[in-house]
Specification:
5-stranded mixed beta sheet, single chain, 8 helices, alpha/beta, 17% strand
């Protein structure tokens, strides 16, 4: 039995199936961890959603910003964007079932020495605290009034965590950190506009703000321009498949990497 963490798929179904063949994945024996952004920008979001949801307990996926965008778009609380490529999902006869499955995915997943989140964690959060906060968002997305949350989910304010935050502001900070974060200050103030790899003044890549004493290894995606990043306590697996890079799998038991080349469905350098 092996557990493979896989970088941002983003609708690249053909590359995913090729990668699973390369690693010899067998359902019933192995498990897959997906770092989020199963959909969008690539050509086969519907195939990816049907496949991953059909794996049942053999797969775990956390929510990414593109996944939440699809949910919000389906529910009519956000407009379709020019570069969105998940119309196949929106038009599918099983769209409601797939969207409900996606909406109920966790923000974080922890098992043994590894934790998985789509984008990042703020320096003021322990892994244990972050799991609790992620569960708050998961509960909001599973509640009857989840559309109210989706309507208030977007925006960059507040830009830092405070323990006394409540309501929509509290949930928005959690979502922004876990699905959008790249750079933040040592105190945890987020810069959500910066892209690329050059940190704005007064900020650092979020993983450089984590405590040196941290024991859990954080597996993340979201940052295609950063590329594959393997550190002792953080592993970034978004190697830019949809942009013509590679799709990456990491076997957690021994950190063995496997990669397949990707056709490239968007111009390189995008986000």
């Amino acid at each position: 039995m092996a557990t493979y963490a896989i970088g941002d798929v983003q609708g690249c179904y053909d590359e995913l199936t090729t990668l699973l063949g390369e690693i010899g994945f067998r359902r019933g024996r192995d498990r897959l961890w997906f770092v989020g952004d199963l959909v969008n920008r690539g050509p086969k979001s519907l195939d990816v959603l049907r496949f991953v949801s059909g794996l049942g307990d053999a797969a775990v996926t956390v929510l990414g910003n593109h996944d939440l965008h699809l949910v919000a778009q389906y529910e009519g609380v956000e407009k379709l964007k020019e570069k969105d490529t998940f119309q196949d999902v929106l038009d599918a006869p099983d769209a409601r079932e797939l969207i409900d499955w996606l909406r109920r995915r966790p923000m974080m997943h922890v098992d043994g020495p590894y934790a998985m989140v789509h984008a990042g964690l703020l320096p003021v959060w322990s892994v244990e605290k972050a799991v609790e906060l992620g569960a708050e968002v998961q509960s909001a997305l599973a509640a009857r009034n989840y559309r109210d949350f989706l309507r208030r989910m977007y925006g960059g304010s507040p830009d830092a965590w405070r323990d006394d935050l409540s309501g929509w502001d509290r949930l928005r900070v959690i979502v922004n950190a876990m699905t959008r974060l790249r750079f933040c200050s040592r105190e945890g103030r987020m810069d959500l506009e910066a892209k690329g790899t050059r940190a704005p003044r007064g900020t650092w890549p979020w993983f450089e703000t984590r405590p040196a004493s941290e024991k859990t290894t954080l597996v993340f995606g979201h940052w295609s321009q950063l590329g594959l990043k393997v550190r002792t306590r953080q592993v970034g697996l978004d190697s830019g498949c949809v942009w013509g890079g590679k799709l990456t799998a990491l076997r957690l038991e021994d950190r063995k990497l496997a990669q397949v080349n990707c056709a490239g469905y968007q111009a390189p350098g995008g986000e």
